[in-house]
Amino acid sequence: MRSRRLSSRLGFLSTILLVAVTGLLAVVAFVGVRGILLHERSASALRQAHVGAALVSNNVLTGGGNLPALLAQINSSSDTVSQALIFGSWESVTSLHPAQTIPLTVRAGTLAGHVTSLTTSWQGHSLVAVGIPLTTINGSYFLLDNLDSLNHELGNIALVIALGWLVVTVGGIVLMRRQLSTALVPLERASAVVRAVAHGDTSQRIAPAASTREIDSLAQNFNAMVDSLVAQMQRDANFASDVSHELRSPLTSLTASVDRLAARRDRLDDDSRQLVDSLQRDVATFSGLVADLLELAQSDRGVDHLVLDEVNVHELMDRCVAHISKRDGVTLPPVTHDGDLDATGVVDRRRFERVMTNVIGNAVKYAGGVSELRVQGDDHSVRFSVADLGPGIADEDRERIFDRFYRGQSAFNRGDTTGTGLGLALVRAHVQALGGTVTVGNHSPRGAVFVISLPRGSATH
Predict the structure, then answer these.
(1) CA nearest neighbour of 98 among 60, 131, 64
(2) How many angstroms separate the Cα of 379 from the Cα of each of 224, 352, 450?
(3) d(CA 140, CA 345)
(4) Please, are residues 130 and 49 in contact by the beta-carbon 8 Å criterion?
(5) ω before 445 within 30° of 0 (cis)?
């Protein structure tokens, strides 16, 4: 999902960048072509004006006469108009007065003796006005070049550039998105493998991507890291399992010896009886620790397989609570059932009873007892809640209490040290093996509430 969002975001940003770059190039291309054509047209008008000025000056000096006809011949096309001011008299082939056609700036500059050229607008038309002083005959020559045809050509060029920009942009977007999608496929697969490993599936590996050297290097390093991590976890699990097994035999002998001493405690003095009682408690704690370590080691090694059954979750909770109450001799409140009373789920009965034994046992031993037991379900999951009468769980302890050997003073207001610190770690391990989650929060009006959420379908492990 994150990879798809990344692909979409990169695709959007790349599209914006491509549109901006190609649009800028199209504008630069049009401005450049327009500048070149306008410059060429202005230069051509200036050259034609010099030629016309020379012809008019020669005509006047040689007395050729019929100046309007000469001006008409000078005009190379219908876009140009020639006008001349000879000895204070205007000669032209148009009925318009020069004051209406020749810009004042051009007239003033030419009459002052300067060659003047200006691109301007007149009555909705664009034109180039050129003025050439005729010093030998005390006159001036003016040429007007209409740029309407050039503007029409520029419009056609702009249309062609726009169409080209559209084709290039659309084609570029399609090609870029295809290449981006292809490039992100290895990343999406690698991301999926990383997520799976992060959730505990250490069997996943990133497949090498022959077309991408960087991804291939990342895959090799990541796979080597996971292999090393799995090997270390396996060594740790084997060590815990081996130690637990090795301790069971001497622990069994020690337990038997302590039990024999306890059976004869009436024959002992007070100090000896206190020592036997203390030793018996410590041996019991040690036995529980070894059993918990062995169970965690089996879970870490994956040898403690699930035995799944489809059961009525409400009846399962009732039977489990009744069994714990009878076995441990504790009084528990009745289970509150919400939702469909015929709701079923697929669970491992032994693991579920182990979870409830630990959670309820913690509430009884360290939190003043159980205040509420509840079962709630919907179409996707079922939630089992156990609330206690203790002081509640501090925010900073709500995650750490599930760590192995963690005993938070704010999490449990314990008056003794008989706990092993592994009970809630076992709870989380069993719940995760069933594909669920376990959380803890504060309960109203007092105490903490543990919520075990399990999927309605089969477990994920």
Answers:
(1) 131
(2) 41, 20, 21
(3) 105
(4) yes
(5) yes
What is the reported pTM? Answer: 0.47
Report d(CA 82, CA 78) in Å as an integer. 11
Phi, psi of 134 (to 5 degrees): -110, 85
The CA-atom distances, in angstroms, between 363 and each of 17, 269, 450 are 60, 36, 10
**In sequence order, which residues have a C-beta less than 8 Å from that of residue 20 and are 6 or more positions away?**
none
Nearest to 202 by CA among 234, 230, 236: 230
User: Cβ contacts of residue 164 below 8 Å, gap of 6+?
Assistant: 26
- Do β-strands 89-92 and 80-86 pair in parallel, antiparallel, or remain unpaired? antiparallel
Low-confidence spans in the chain with pLDDT less than 70? 1-12, 76-78, 87, 93-100, 179-185, 200, 209-212, 214, 233, 236-248, 285-306, 407-421, 457-461
Q: Is 63 helix (H, G, I), strand (E, B) or coil?
A: coil
Domains in the chain and their CATH numbers? 2-152 (3.30.450.20), 213-301 (1.10.287.130), 308-455 (3.30.565.10)
